[in-house]
Amino acid sequence: MVNPALCLLNAVPWYGAGYNEVWQENEYTRVTQILIAEDANFSRAVLRRMLQEEGYDILEVGNGKQCLDILATESPDCLILDLLMPEVTGYEVLARLAQQGKTIPVLVVTADVQETTRQQCLALGAIAVLNKPPKPEQIHEILQQVLPKA
Amino acid sequence: MTHSPQLTPAQRDALQELVNIGVGQAAGTLNEMVRSHIHLQVPEVSVLSLHEAQTILQSRLNSDLLSSVRLQFHGNFAGVAQLIFPTDSAAKLVTMLTGEDAKISELDSLKIGTLSEIGNILLNGVMGTMSNVLEQHVEYSMPVYVEQTVTQLLNSSSDYASTVILAQARFRIEQLHITGDIILIFKVGSLNRFLATLKDA
Predict the structure, then answer these.
(1) B4 falls within a domain
(2) A119 to chain B: nearest residue by CA?
């Protein structure tokens, strides 16, 4: 796992969309960038703190439209997506990404505990669905499975 | 507690247990968030007129102004779920979760945002668990936070029904002296569908 302190201390050059590279212990380690799409400040702050403690670089948006806009220009390694958001919902984001053929791993984090909702998200291409508030170890385990190895 | 002829003993038992399971799920979530034990009372479930519900809630909640998060649901059955706190309990909860003093007026947006999301999580826990048990999917609207009296609280739900299922589940966070109630109100017509689903479950 990347040491977040090193990320802060280094002048981090960009080497391709979505990746920072940091000199660490004589090798380049890529800082993984995660986009959080969540309209509730409270849950966004919880996720941000959780992920920053693990050393991830964070992008944040407050609704599904902003999420699609930023994905048109940026290429984060993973998207953490809420479902019930204004303007464009998480379901619509999943559907649009599938239409566009985007392969970014999407982890849905939702308050909706219904099994049907979980199945619907997986059918739309989400890699996993977690219920709010997610536990750090749940997020960590899923990210470890889907993110590119450093 | 007012007894309604619309609920058979079996329906009352099933509904009470469903609410119990749902609120238990929500309490587990709240426990993880505040890291304090959540004391639950056995939920009381009744089918009442809005007026009866208002009288009962007025006496139960014993507070002029209430903080309430409303989550509308629709699907095979529809209505509104509400998480209600006395305003001082709501402020304490926000302070506990964010570290900010929610009694300071400039922090209204913080208080509203935080309570809306907490309500969203807890009410989804209740409704989603019930939905899973009954195998009936429901859709949700965005949660809305309001501060109002009991009268206003039920009047704002009057477009839903003259008859409500009043499921009162009280929880208490012992160390923080925070109490809250969860109320479910079902739309006319949808109430009967819901009761029929209970029969099938």
Answers:
(1) no
(2) B137
